[in-house]
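Lab manual, section 2.4: Encoding a predicted structure.

Procedure: take the sequence of the chain (117 residues), apply the prediction step described in section 2.3, and record the output as structure tokens. A sample record is shown.
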Amino acid sequence: QVQLVESGGGLVQPGGSLRLSCAASRIIFSTYVMGWYRQAPGKQRELVATISSSSTTNYADSMRGRLTISRDNAKNTVYLQMNSLKPEDTAVYYCNAYRVYDLRNYWGQGTQVTVSS
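Recorded output:
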């Protein structure tokens, strides 16, 4: 079955940095738009960043300037570098894979990010 596995979450202090990874298997990785979403307690899931097959990127306004999303098609992996983290960034971060032409859409299990002193 299709599998997306996130890693790299954890506890960081305000102002700190973290890099998340998402490894995909059993998909033709290069044909998918890859994205990161997050869900904080009591809130709706929201978009963090996306990257297309041509490496066009899109970022949420709340985190623009503090993020870099990238992908390595040879490793079937997408990354999210997060800098200058704030307590309000605390959430479960989910990896997403989406293919436009046939509307395939897959989700990972999530990784916890906690920003606290």
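Check your result against the sample. The chain is about 0% helix and 55% strand.
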